[in-house]
């Protein structure tokens, strides 16, 4: 994915990671690449990568394990 430099970067990075989670590239319980690797892949700063992953955490798509990194959360059970 190529970043549109005219738009804020972190939402674009978050959207691509979200797409990968929803598409099964990153599966529930799987560790995401670290923010250094994400920054390198998308050619953005590490703080941009961190903000993107933090936004996914706020959405409940990923969770953090202290000292280990970010992991894909189990899908929410929408059945009531």
TrEMBL record:
Instruction: List, alphabetically, the Gene3D superfamilies matched.
Output: Winged helix-like DNA-binding domain superfamily/Winged helix DNA-binding domain (1.10.10.10)
Indicate the secretion signal residues: none
UniProt keywords, alphabetically: DNA-binding, Transcription, Transcription regulation
Q: Where is the HTH gntR-type domain?
A: 7-75
List the transmembrane segments: none
**Pfam families according to UniProt:** GntR
Q: Which PANTHER family match?
A: MANNOSYL-D-GLYCERATE TRANSPORT/METABOLISM SYSTEM REPRESSOR MNGR-RELATED, MANNOSYL-D-GLYCERATE TRANSPORT_METABOLISM SYSTEM REPRESSOR MNGR-RELATED
Report what the protein is called: Winged helix-turn-helix domain-containing protein
Q: Which species is this record about?
A: Streptomyces althioticus subsp. attaecolombicae
């Amino acid at each position: 994915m190529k970043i549109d430099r005219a738009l804020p970067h972190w939402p674009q990075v978050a959207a691509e990671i979200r797409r990968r989670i929803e598409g099964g590239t990153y599966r529930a319980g799987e560790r995401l690449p670290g923010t250094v690797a994400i920054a390198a892949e998308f050619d953005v700063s590490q703080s941009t990568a961190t903000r993107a992953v933090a936004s996914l955490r706020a959405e409940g798509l990923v969770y953090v394990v202290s000292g280990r990194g970010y992991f894909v959360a189990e899908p929410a059970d929408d059945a009531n």
